[in-house]
Design brief:
Shape: globular
Strand order of the largest sheet: 1-2
Number of helices: 2
Order of helices and strands: HHEE
Largest sheet: 2 strands, antiparallel
Helix content: 40-55%
């Protein structure tokens, strides 16, 4: 999968998650919630679209630079 497609998917996930969670603090419980939300978004998009990027599993991890930031990691890419 090319980097441009992954970048666009990462931006899409980030926008959707920040809309759903406007006030974010990276706690283990909140990261678990975000991981469930991102999986639901991925499955919803896989049903609606044929783009193969929606088949790539995604995981949310703390950014490490700030408690209000998270990173979107594509598992297997």
């Amino acid at each position: 999968m090319n980097k441009a497609v992954l970048r666009l998917a990462r931006e899409f996930y980030f926008r959707r998650l920040t809309e759903m969670n406007p006030y974010f603090i990276a706690t283990p419980a909140k990261l678990e919630i975000l991981n469930r939300q991102v999986e639901a978004i991925r499955q919803e998009m896989a049903r609606k679209e044929t783009n193969p990027v929606w088949k790539v599993p995604v995981r949310i991890e703390p950014d490490g630079t700030s408690v209000t930031r998270f990173d979107i990691v594509f598992v297997g890419e």
